[in-house]
Amino acid sequence: MDEVTREDASQAAGGFRIADFNDRPPWWGGDLQTLRNFFMAQSEPLPSMSATLEFEASDGSGDWLTGRLERPLATGVAGPLILLIHGLTGCEDSTYVRASARFHLARGRSVLRLNLRGAGPYKRAAKSYYHAGCAADIQDVLDGLGDEQNRRGIFLVGFSLGGNILLNLLAGLKPGHRIFGAATVSAPIEPLEACRRLMQPRNALYHRWLLKRMKQDVLALAELTSRERRDITNARSVYEFDDRWVAPRNGFRDAEDYYDRTAGACRIASISVPTLLLHAQNDPWIPVEPYLDLASSTASSVQVLVALSGGHVGFHERGHAETWHDRMIDVFLGGLLTATSDFDNDS
Predict the structure, then answer these.
(1) Tens of pLDDT along 206-252?
(2) How buried is residue 40: exposed, middle or buried, by Cβ count under 10 Å (0-12/13-18/19+)?
(3) In 24, 67, 76, 99, which residue has its Cα 20 to 30 A from 233's Cα atom?
(4) How far apart are CA 264 and CA 254, in angstroms?
């Protein structure tokens, strides 16, 4: 393990820590760290044997979720299945998802690049769209995995909105689950505060771009009423989009009810699975204050690591080809594997 990883890993132990972070030139600051995923997007084939998996939603809608299961080319799988959950307007092919898949495949781990409901290459397999509280969909995926995928347990990683969905799942897990551990990266754990940050004048370009993509994704769904299409089209902000379509479509009173009831920060105390929360102090989209508020109230099973820089799902660090968040998750997972091995040897 290199010296930077040793330092950050030691800081990650013990509940809540602030970590140093050195931006990789020329990606200085939160905005450039965030935008690198778009400027440097890559689509090279992953070094794996790949197959498409399908999971039927249990809510009677007839919707399906899909994902790409990647198995390392080398024989002998090391550790649990890594299940990657993308963020808002993302999919299995998002740059950060592919980068993390490549990272874990190189370490001999199988990876499932999940598409949330209504996302990805097979988005028309769904009539509705995912949201911040759709933990039941992830549970359906876990229930639909076969014995081979479950055999070594599962480690889940949620990026951005996918991280908030993951926290909702972890707080209400069904008995007998096979989840080994979990991590979130740049998750909006207080959705209302994240929405307010996104709508600030300094984020106008981000806001306009994200709202356009949200509308495009949802308007591609086959089953929308004329009123729904009108409300989606006329929404002038992410808040209006959530208030006029997401909330009523999914049984919430309005946007603030939706944000309040799906806030991952309120679920932390109920999480018993070992979980690592990663965030950057200079994330331009997601405020750091909700993470700082967890410093005195974090569950014993949850660790929070806030880097001084890294942007939103960026974390491109000087001296490293692989992202800081992937390396920190690897350290965290390695500790869990070691602890499990020590326990097995003692018993």
Answers:
(1) 999 999 999 999 998 868 899 999 999 999 999 999 999 999 999 99
(2) exposed
(3) 67
(4) 18
SS3 297: coil
pTM for the model stands at 0.93
User: Cis omega (within 30 of 0) on the bond before 175?
Assistant: no
Residue 277 to residue 285: CA distance in whole angstroms: 16
Q: What is the mean pLDDT of the chain?
A: 90
Q: Tokens at residue 334, please?
A: 């390695």
Burial class (CB in 10 A: 0-12, 13-18, 19+), 44: exposed
Mean pLDDT of 96-125: 93
H/E run at residue 305: strand 302-307
3-state secondary structure of 342: helix
Domain boundaries, the chain: 3-190+267-339, 199-262
Looking up tokens 């001296």 gives 319
Which DSSP category does 317 fall into?
Answer: B
Q: Which of the pair, 16 or 249, is modelled with greater confidence? A: 249
Residue 319 is classified by DSSP as T
Question: For 74, which DSSP code?
Answer: S
Burial degree of 22 (CB within 10 A; 0-12, 13-18, 19+):
middle
* Residue-wise burial string across 148-175, b where 16 or more C-beta atoms lie within 10 A, e elsewhere: ebeebbbbbbbbbbbbbbbbbbbbebee
Give CA–CA dist 72/8, Å, rounded: 28
Summarised one tens digit per residue, pLDDT across range 286-344 is: 999 999 998 766 668 999 999 999 999 999 999 999 999 999 999 999 999 988 765 44
Cα–Cα nearest to 159, from 278, 287, 38: 278
Give the type of residue at 138.
Answer: I
Contact indicator for 281, 306 with CB cutoff of 8 Å: yes
The span from the CA of 6 to the CA of 335, in Å, is 12
Q: What mean pLDDT do residues 245-273 have?
A: 96
Tell me what pLDDT residue 9 has: 37
Burial track 284-309 (b if 16+ CB lie within 10 A, e otherwise): bbbbeebbeebeeebbebbbbbbbeb
Residue-wise pLDDT tens digits, 17-40: 899 999 999 999 999 999 999 888
